[in-house]
Amino acid sequence: MDQQNHNMPQAIGDAGSMPNPIATATAYHATYHHLYHQKQQQQQRRTICANQYREIEQTKIFKSHNLPLARIKKIMKADEDVQMIATEVPMVFARACEMFILELTHRAWTHAEKNKRQTLQKNDIADAISRTDIFDFLVDIVPTTEGGGEG
């Protein structure tokens, strides 16, 4: 029995043996605050994705894009295995790229906000890549900033 209770304080007045209620409350608040913001960010991403899918479903004309379709087609044709490309493919690929850029930017912006900045930096993008499994293919392309940035 003595071995089971060796971590229990001897008396309520023992200094250092009772947890500090202020420190405990502060740690709890910090954890709750972090989880709340993490959940809020997940909800924002879900909303963005839902809006994107709704926009895709309602789109009848795929002619206007922020990315140049001719450049996308040229990049696709750079692969010697690609011989012909259907007309719709560069349009769909452009839309997928736009969604990819939006997701990566949103995650990087979250990192910038966490560091109380309003300017997106390279280390924000590197952090978003390193913390998100779906961006694993970029780990070797975008170097992490070791010791050189906020983080």
From TrEMBL:
Primary location: nucleus
Record keywords: DNA-binding, Nucleus, Transcription, Transcription regulation
Superkingdom of the source species: Eukaryota
Domain Transcription factor CBF/NF-Y/archaeal histone: 66-129
Leader sequence segment: none
Record keyword Transcription present: yes
Compartments in which it is found: Nucleus
Keyword check for Nucleus: yes
Coiled coil: none
A single MF term (Gene Ontology): DNA-binding transcription factor activity, RNA polymerase II-specific
Gene Ontology annotations for the cellular component aspect, listed alphabetically: nucleus
Pfam families recorded: CBFD_NFYB_HMF
Assigned protein family: Belongs to the NFYC/HAP5 subunit family.
Protein name: Transcription factor CBF/NF-Y/archaeal histone domain-containing protein
Organism: Dendrobium chrysotoxum (Orchid)
